Amino acid sequence: MPELTEKQEKEIAEVKAMVETKRQKLGVKYDRYVARVVAVLRANNATFETMTDEEITELVMLVDVIGEESRGTMKKLGEYCARCGWCCSRTNKIVVTKEDTERISRALKQKTEDLFVFDGKEWSMKKVRPCRWWNPKNGRCAIYNIRPQVCRVWPMAVNEIGQKMVHSVSECSYAVMVLASKVIRYLQTPKAT
Known about the structure:
Blueprint: H1 6-26, H2 28-44, H3 53-65, H4 71-76, H5 86-89, E1 95-96, H6 98-108, H7 112-115, E2 116-118, E3 123-125, E4 134-135, E5 140-141, H8 149-152, E6 156-158, E7 164-166, H9 173-188
Antiparallel strand pairs: 1-3, 2-3, 4-5, 6-7
Helix pairs in contact: 1-3, 2-3, 2-9, 3-9
């Protein structure tokens, strides 16, 4: 294996720092998410037979923080959504856009401030965990056709630096499979020498 240049070493150190920041921020939740992705990769792909769990874990974490996720990929992997309702019933805060608040309030003929709250920085739904519009009996959204943008693109989110990424939720099969797919795509991408 060729020696790394100083620039390459610096880039790797920056990516590892991003991983560590994410691990510190999410803690055990992130470790569970990565472990679930590792288990999926090991069970479904011979590429990982010769790698240790530690090597796969490091690879998963590095790939998780590099590169943006695309909505096209997410749509292709939509079949992995188990329709479990985790995103509707367990999310602590559902951030919405100003346009979402206006569209939903207008369609439901209710005041924006009755449905949403603005904290000076961002809008969010007032009643979550579970979402006020999620029906636990049938697992469906009562406002599906006018649902917020964040719900339309789940499990994709935007991180602190504006990069599209996948929510790190081990309980969401969809999120796990999107990252597993991203790792496999990364390994299949020809690398510049």
